[in-house]
Amino acid sequence: MLDPDVCYQALKARDARFDGRLFVGVTSTGIYCRPICPATTAKRENCRFFLSAAAAQEAGFRPCLRCRPETAPEHGSWNGSSNTVSRGLSLIASGALDQDDASVDTLAERLGVGGRQLRRLFQQHLGASPIAVAQTQRVLFAKQLIHETRMPMAEVALAAGFGSVRRFNETFQRLYARPPSALRRKTVDRKSAERGVSVRLRYRPPYDWNALLGFFRARAVEGVEHVDVDTERYARTLCHDGAVGTLEIRHVPSDRAVVATIHFPNVRALPAIVARIRRQFDLAADLVTIGTQLAEDPWLAPLVAARPGLRSPGAWDGFELGVRAILGQQVSVVAARRLNAELVRLCNRRVPSETASPGLTLVFPSPDDVLAADLSRLPVPGARRRALVHLAEAVLADPALFEPRPTIDETVSRLTAVTGIGEWTAQYIALRAARDPDAFPASDLGLQRGAALWLGERPSAKVLLRHAERWRPFRAYAAEHLWAADAAGEQRAP
Fold it and tell me: Is 0.85 surpassed by the pTM of this model?
């Protein structure tokens, strides 16, 4: 629930800590804004406060053209209040309600709840229905593309998930009392389309970009990924629904955002690609809330204080992460990187010449690619080769294998049912691919070594798991701090 008095004080102060957490609808103008909007603050009696942009839009308010609600940091996903809502938002962002045959009941079935319960949870935590959330995301994403790119309006409509240009035009005419083209800024670079579609994706600070970049650099697979140390940029190839493209990510700290430049032949895939980027770079995390809870444990507090912006790096694709995890069992990061590069070369799925760029010439293999490859040439034990085959077969049989379940135990149980995937691998996949903030691979040697710097001796997985109970539901972030401590070799008094 929102306290109107607190919300109004945040609005008057233009407090950035509330950006994305609440939206204000002004009854005298019919507009809804972010709390940091530079416009003159409305009178208290004219303000209504909402948990989400969808709730404000469903109440009849239209988005502000000055503060642009579509650029607010993500909301709802990481407040720890509802795992079901968090998972539902992730699926909606990936386009779960954009298909013609999509429905709330179908979404609820994927989440393991009833349709009525899902609607109630969304209303409770976001103040809007799942359909309203999906429609609002569609409109706001379209508005962002209009502002930040030179894409033709027909392509913007397709990219945002509108069924037709006519419906796209009608929606914007109703919301803004003007056609979509009237919202396009004249100062946008007209050559931007030639360089790909670039969108700004905001986050809530603090944000340790260098730590994330270091993580991806250490694991970058040759031909698939490239990290430019001089420009501090990350680039990779990608495959979605059979089409191949590339993307580049750079950090803009002054804007509290990362800029993603996407080269992809199918504009309809843009929302799903952007959703993956958000997960991979952990843009939705509220580290202030997470850090405050973890710091309640005096054992972990010094680590959180030393790295307040430490994020939990994600994976581009669940199957890719599963392959990386299997090949990374009982070997170093360097060796795992070399094995992944060998598998990529073995499958030899190349980027079309018109899309390829220096250092980005190969695509990470799909399940079909792995099953068709001669894995006997891969220098790993036979059990590991068989695990790759079992994983590929499991993904083809169940494309939702890597979607998070209601609890981490259910997620891990589903993954360990695949032959060759044990507890550690399942927890690691849950952490990086399913993006469960409570995943915790307690048997990991790096975590145990990180804990030993405080305990004086390396704890067993059982002891570490028992201690980690106090870090729930953010054990994944505690794991990141322990890994960072181990890598730095920090010493603390027991």
Answer: yes
